[in-house]
Amino acid sequence: MANIINVVYFLILFPFIMAIIIGLLKKASPLRSAVIIIGGFTIMAAAIYVAVNVLLSGKIHIVYLENIELYNHIVVALEVFLMVLVCFLSIKYKKFYAIIFSLVGTIPVLWMDLTGRAVEYSNHLRIDTFTAVMYLIVGVVGILICIYASGYMKDYHHHHTDVQDRSNYFLALMFVFLGAMFGLISSDNLGFIYFFWEITSVCSFLMIGYTRTQEAVDNSFRALWMNLLGGCGFAAGLMYCNMNLEIANLSDLTGIAATSKFVIVPVTLFAFAALTKSAQFPFSKWLLGAMVAPTPSSALLHSATMVKIGVYMLIRVSPLLYNTLTGIMITVIGGFTFFAASLLAITVSDGKKVLAYSTISNLGLITACAGTGTTEGVWAAVMLVLFHAVSKSLLFQTVGDIENCMHSRDIEDMHGLIIKLPRLAFIMMIGICGMFMAPFGMLVSKWAALKAFVDSGSVWLVIFLVFGSGSTLFYWAKWLGKICTVIHQSFELEDITPRSEMVSIFPLTSMIVIMCFAFPWMSSHMIQPILDEAFNTNIPDVIGGSDVIIMMIMVAMIFMIPIGSRILAIGKNSKMTMSYVAGVNAGDDRHYIDSFGKERALYMSNWYMDEIFGEKKLLLPCIIVSAVLVAVMLIIVVGGAF
Amino acid sequence: MTVSIIIKALLYVLLAPFVGGLLSGIDRVFSARMQGRQGPPVFQPFYDVFKLMNKQTTVVNGIQVLFVTAYLIFTIFTGALFFAGGDMLLVFFALSMSEVMMVLAAFSTNGPYSIMGAQRELLQMMCYEPMTLLVAIGFYYANGSFMVNDLIHASVPAIVQIPGFFIGFVFILIIKLRKSPFDLSTSHHMHQEMVKGLTTDLSGGNLARVEIAEWYDTVLMMGIVGMFFITNNPISILWAVIACSVVFFLETLIDNLFPRVKYITMLKVTWAVILVFAGTNLLILNVLK
Lengths: 642, 289
Hints:
Shape of chain A: globular
Strand content of chain A: under 5%
Structural class of chain A: mainly alpha
Number of strands of chain B: 1
Oligomer: heterodimer
Number of domains of chain A: 1
Order of helices and strands of chain B: HHEHHHHHHHH
Largest sheet of chain B: none
Structural class of chain B: mainly alpha
Largest sheet of chain A: 3 strands, antiparallel
Largest interface: A-B, 61 and 71 residues
Helix content of chain A: over 70%
């Protein structure tokens, strides 16, 4: 017992120590890489140790910190530090609005803490199954991204000589981020959660602004104000809990649901904060802007950390959302985001931007699932969180590597990637399949989500989901097609992906494949206990026995067909020819000879349908519609309580 | 139980190509008569496929064959899953996966006509995907299960409760069976701008495989049409067969009546039809539940 708690302390504090050490190692050196790899794997091992222990024993560890005064002082001091930091940078870059959000979010909470109005004598940490599952995501996926980053940043500065090399600062921030994540998911005390919440906001702001270009600065401040706005909502919820409901704990909040009807007020405020963190419409623009930063930060923000905090909070409060106006509004916003973002993803050709829209879209689905407040909804939501974290971090890392090799991350430039960079292309294909195709993970979860929506009678969600899956299929499949194109007389490029990045990419790729087989086990050992803790009930398998067998057969077939055809030499004795171009193919698939005997260039672009779903046309209306929805929710629920 | 499942699946695998090929032949005879022509014999599709199989296969690249084979295998798998009584949602997920394989086969050739056909095929999938998923959901609302095995034991035919879904499904069958006005990705008719779209760079055995896969697919689609009428009463099978014949005739008629439309029209029209018919039906069911 005490043993595990000590490891938890280690998990929260050690990343910060790592950050300091890395911060001191200014130059990219084997030493720094070694520190990151050794430290990273230590954290990963610790996280897995705690998670496995909790999952196997099924015990909930609750900790009451004895000398809380000291910790409170540290938290207050650091909150003031964050506020001063934000104010200083806002003044430096003349973005004064950020100061307002920072002050509004911090000072009332400080006032509450310092005047002793906060509720004391309740538990501070709580390690349950959901925490364990999140440990696995942060500990495994998050750490792999950090290891990837140590190699990536070296190449990055090799190509971007105009950017000042502050990679030690960047890598240190990544570890601070992970530390804050571990803190957040371990905490039960709302004040602590809020403190870690603010660290992640400021951290992501600093990471996005890494290159210090005008665009980076603008985007980072956009991320900052949106997240600080969410932080204000969180702070309001926190104060309401402490001062009106006399609750200081998340678990108490979910526990007293039946006794107080005002409990929905803080829940709505937390849900609002979650919407900003998870980049739901109308707050999606910060995540789209976040891609100006080097790729590891995108991978970290999109997969294991930042956006997952929002849905983490939503899943935590999910039982309270069942059949409430807040719940309905959250599901509608989530469903709408899922659909709208998937349409927008069709229209962009920048690889990272497609991934960003896909994140927003999938997070929308998770939000919608959590908003239903049903057991099936939460089942699907947790599954989606798991699968999304793995697939998305892999995709970001691969896009980053492709960019380092080809100096472009545009999907159009990935034409014929299977010939140019076969290894990366193959990994990317698995990543993309993992995002949308049967029988891979995301589709399994989507399937469960569909069942959850049908059972809870959310017709609008069903409609959003089915139309959204149509457009999701379109944007992934055309990307997949672009990679698979085989161009004659095209040659392999030099794959300069360093080994340290492969240390991260290979495990993630194999995890996608393994998770296809492991999901029934994951369901019974990871997700059912979560439902047990949240709803005190279990559900029958969302995806039943015979379906599981059939999906196993499908997974096996996917891998058997390429192998089988290699053995049977299908198509090996066929005559080779050039593709038909309605003229004479000049031999390289990129030129043809027209009827005048001239050689003309030929290029096949993907469809983007910009004039129909383009960002210019669709983005603003989406933001307005969802902003109205959020406003209605806040006004009715929060306003109605006073 | 397991034995009967295997027998059903096997029957589908063995018989579906004959039924599908025959349907394709009947379709051609119908079309010819509608256009005032004599038309080919009913067994023409079989002759065509045999001829294709005996021809030398030329390929553009190695992985093309791989994808076409995968397309055939997964299409058969999907149909077998349905006729063996599997989960409707899984059937449709597997179906879109097999379609993606075909699209990838076309993408891999790097031929402009193939790739254009592939893009159009993807768009077509985007158009009908919502409806296929909704059909599964409609059956679930009507009879409380996603499993085909449970659905065939209904006491009342599903069409009574989900007529809107039926209309929507018949509508997207136009796309699925590659009928004009929505046959953008293959363009079966003469003087088209797309040569043969998706299958432009396929020949010989590969093309034969695609043809056979489409026969399987047709039978599967007709099976789903029949599902709307099946009950625990054996007579209902007759109704289902009649319904399938009517729907199939209707699709051929539509094929001959309407000229091909632009892709954007297709997207708007199909999504509108799905939303209006299936969406409204779903809302009503939900209120009544």
